[in-house]
Design brief:
The structure holds 2 protein chains of 2 kinds. Chain A is of the alpha/beta class. Chain A is built from 6 helices and 14 strands. Chain B has 2 domains: about 10-380, 3-Layer(aba) Sandwich (UDP-N-acetylmuramoyl-L-alanine:D-glutamate ligase); about 390-525, Protein-Tyrosine Phosphatase, Chain A (Alpha-Beta Complex). Chain B contains 17 helices and 17 strands. Chain B has helices spanning about 35-50, 60-70, 80, 85-95, 100-115, 130-145, 160-170, 195-200, 215-220, 220-235, 250, 350-370, 370-380, 405-420, 465-475, 485-495, 510-525; strands at about 125, 150, 185-190, 205-210, 240-245, 265-270, 295-300, 305, 320-325, 330-340, 340-345, 390-395, 395-405, 425-430, 455-460, 480-485, 500-505. The chains are: A alpha/beta, B alpha/beta.
């Protein structure tokens, strides 16, 4: 476990990154970089705690980040993550902000069923299950544009690349609705899942830098976890983020799989 | 959506040659694999499932591998394929234009073999994520200096089609290659295509450079590429010398399953040049035994002096190595060690990655039995390959083009830029075409943060200029201009740079092609060094 703190700020949040060495094959560390850059602008300090295999979780966290990994590496961390499951679920219950991307999202679900029918247990933080694609089924790869019902989040852009198909259980809420792309399974129009302030998604890109509304929502949730419901942030615009968002949205409209 | 994800050489959709109407081409839907790795796996299984396969007869063997690759519609041509050699001859004599493209494509695998088998000095393949073009360019130069006539596929033509096209251009109407006795094939191959073409090309020497995360939207995962290499070698019954980068554990591991083959390792022996710690974009963290690798030195990404304390595997000692490396802004000097012979070499290329390419070329040339003198002359004199550190004099400014198309490549370019004075102009271009990778996420895996604090004039351009500008801003770098139009951005870079100053262009593949074309047109002259191919 390594910890990096930035001091001097009046307010600060603690960010826990799970298995950053292995669950980050797909540039998802851009999410942490975006949180750090945005918090600099907002005057919020960021303490980052990297939790690797065999490391204990810290007692508290305001924001948890986990990305996607290769299949082999996902299998490696699964037992370690399962051992942390009850603590992570308790954090989610107490409104810790979370962002689980792609493989991380799958591992935060109930289980992953392999092509051979084996069920690899997940954390069960989201009531979702993921199944390996049937033989001959392609991976879900491409630009995505989706619309979220979550307050303040709105339109989402990014890039997805996953084989597994994820299905929402009765207690799960979709994070967003796919306009272009595949989303959870390419079939029911849902993308990701939400539980309290925890968000699971298939969006890479990295997703937070170019979706500034989502970034601010997570930072605000982390601040409220730390300082209570009155905490707020000043809504300053980030023109770079907005332009990149628009550019990615244009690309997704042009070449992303149309969702009818 | 149903777009082919395979890289089609330089965007060529068709070729003038009758051989090149491969069935995988214009109507990609349904015929092309979703990802090459999945396709490789499928083909591997089909081949492995054939107990009666005749490994002693490379023509039919390779033919069937290829047939497996073109899908059900091609099955009907299997009968034809039994007489593939003869059909190729007929095709050549009869002027293939008369034949439907599909048939020609089906016959092409046999043609590859027929051509490769004629090369008097055999053939060397070069594959890996980064450095293929420069390495094969250097091997080609060494071969030429040694008096051979290399047959070398051009940059970007490293898929099946490109290789076939290279050969087709060299054979006459009877399918014979004039002067073949003096010829050596130097073939750069896409890392996902290498397993497919191994049986046809039957290389004397196979060079493996490195394996980094690259275009995950196209290749799938890094692991599957390495598995594809291993599987292809395991199923390949012929002799081939493996030239391996021992500093990259996933490349070095190829030696483990190939104890019967000759292996020549190359690597860097200079811990003074190591990084402080592992870079973010590190792709081989775990040994085959499952433990985590330890590093005595990290040179780039996961490349370095590694060992596994759990099972005792460790980096083999390289036969070809570089010592005492001195990195300059435009050139690099080091001691080249080839089987205990030491030569001081200065290459007109910057960056540690260029040293690796030079070592790979030297090791490949050594494996081929070329004289060391030819290698050292090639390294010193042959200059950059197309778009790889090529330099142009434009309106009194020195312009250098640096290709960067994946995190490790960009990290190495950044390391090279850090050696420059602050008054340089940096023109960074990000495109998202199929050959660039449609997913631009990878820019977050590269360590742009290392450039913060530097005062380069930064201009950002390309189709995804807005994404790159945001990436720079996240890293604390403020672009002076964000302009999607590359020609406009180039003009702005020239205007912003005083006469005598330098403009460093960092570009993804299609952006490099575009801006290199503009530079060649505008300078009207040859670049400082012209690729001799």
């Amino acid at each position: 476990m390594t910890s990096v703190a930035s001091s001097g700020a009046a307010r600060s949040i603690r960010v826990v990154t799970l298995y950053p060495e292995v669950m980050d094959v797909y540039a998802d560390r851009g999410n942490l970089l975006a949180v750090q850059a945005r918090c600099r602008v907002l005057g919020v300090g960021v303490e980052v705690i990297a939790v690797g295999m065999g490391d204990a979780l810290p007692s508290e966290a305001d924001l948890v980040l986990i990305g996607g990994g290769q299949d082999r590496e996902q299998r490696r961390i699964a037992p370690d993550l399962a051992a942390k499951g009850s603590a992570l679920r308790a954090w989610a219950d107490s409104y810790t902000a979370m962002l689980a991307v792609c493989g991380g999202f799958q591992l935060f679900g109930n289980f992953y069923r392999t092509g051979a029918g084996e069920e690899l247990p997940g954390v069960g933080l989201f009531d979702v299950t993921t199944v390996a694609p049937a033989p001959g089924m392609p991976r879900c790869i491409g630009d995505m544009l989706a619309q979220s019902d979550l307050a303040g989040v709105g339109e989402l852009v990014g890039f997805e690349n996953h084989g597994g198909r994820t299905y929402l259980g009765p207690r799960a809420l979709a994070f967003a609705w796919v306009r272009h792309g595949f989303g959870n399974n390419g079939d029911d129009g849902t993308e990701g899942a939400v539980y309290r302030e925890a968000i699971g998604t298939y969006l890479h890109g990295s997703v937070l830098p170019k979706n500034p509304a989502l970034l601010d929502r997570l930072i605000l949730a982390a601040l409220r976890h730390r300082y209570g419901a009155e905490a707020s942030i000043e809504a300053t615009r980030d023109e770079y983020a907005e332009r990149a968002h628009r550019a990615a949205a244009d690309v997704a409209r042009k070449r992303g799989r149309a969702n009818s | 959506m149903a777009r082919c994800r395979m890289k089609h050489e330089n965007g060529e959709r068709r070729s003038r040659s009758p051989f090149l109407y491969l069935p995988a081409l214009p109507p990609c839907e349904g015929l092309c694999p979703q990802t090459p790795s999945e396709e490789m796996e499928r083909i591997g299984q089909q081949v492995a499932a054939r107990p009666d396969r005749d490994l002693g007869s490379p023509v039919s063997w390779s033919y069937e591998v290829m047939m497996a690759g073109v899908g059900i519609r091609a099955r009907g041509a299997l009968l034809l394929g039994r007489g593939a050699g003869e059909a190729v001859r007929r095709l050549g004599r009869g002027g293939g234009t008369a034949l439907p493209g599909l048939v020609a494509g089906r016959l092409a695998p046999g043609l590859l073999e027929a051509c490769a088998a004629q090369l008097g000095h055999g053939l060397i393949t070069v594959t890996g994520t980064n450095g293929k073009t420069t390495t094969s360019h250097l091997i080609s130069a060494a071969a030429r200096i040694a008096g051979l006539h290399p047959l070398h596929n051009r940059s970007g033509s490293n898929l099946e089609r490109g290789v076939i096209s290279t050969f087709v251009g060299e054979v006459d109407g009877t399918g014979t290659m004039p002067g073949a006795a003096d010829r050596l094939g130097v073939i750069e191959l896409d890392e996902a295509v290498w397993p497919l073409l191994l049986p046809s090309l039957r290389p004397r020497v196979a060079v493996f450079l490195n394996l980094f995360r690259d275009q995950l939207d196209r290749y799938g995962e890094v692991d599957s590429v390495a598995e594809g290499w291993q599987r292809a070698l395991a199923a390949y019954p012929f002799r081939t010398t493996l030239v391996l980068n021992v500093d990259d554990p996933s490349v070095a591991a190829l030696a483990d399953g190939n104890a019967a083959r000759e292996v020549i390792g190359f690597g860097v022996e200079d811990v003074a040049i190591a990084l402080d710690g592992a870079e973010h974009a590190s792709d081989a963290r775990f040994c085959v035994c499952g433990a985590t690798y330890r590093y005595d030195a990290v040179y780039m990404g996961h490349v370095g002096i590694w060992r596994c304390d759990a099972c005792g595997r460790s980096r083999p000692t390289p036969v070809v190595s570089a010592r005492n490396i001195r990195l300059g802004t435009d050139s690099t000097t080091f001691e080249l060690v080839v089987a205990r012979e030491v030569t001081e070499v200065t290459i007109p290329l910057a960056g540690l990655y260029s040293v690796y390419n030079a070592l790979a070329a030297a090791a490949g040339a050594h494996a081929l039995g070329l004289p060391l003198e030819a290698t050292t002359r090639a390294l010193a004199e042959s200059g950059p390959a197309f778009g790889r550190q090529e330099r142009f004099a434009l309106d009194g400014r020195m312009v250098r083009v640096l290709l960067a198309k994946n995190p490790t490549g960009l990290n190495e370019v950044i390391r090279t830029l850090l050696a420059l004075p602050d008054d340089a102009t940096l023109l960074a271009l990000l495109n998202d075409g199929i050959q660039d990778g449609q997913d631009v996420s990878w820019i977050y895996d590269a360590d742009l943060e290392r450039l913060s604090g530097r005062e380069f004039r930064l201009i950002v351009s390309g189709d995804r200029a807005d994404d790159l500008a945001l990436r720079c801003a996240v890293a604390g770098l403020e672009p002076r201009m964000v302009e999607r139009d590359i020609a406009f951005a180039l003009n702005a870079a020239i205007a912003a740079t005083p006469v005598g100053g330098r403009i460093e262009i960092v570009a993804t593949y299609t952006a490099m092609i575009a801006i290199r074309g503009m530079l060649a047109t505008r300078t009207g002259a040859q670049p400082y060094w012209e690729s001799t191919e």
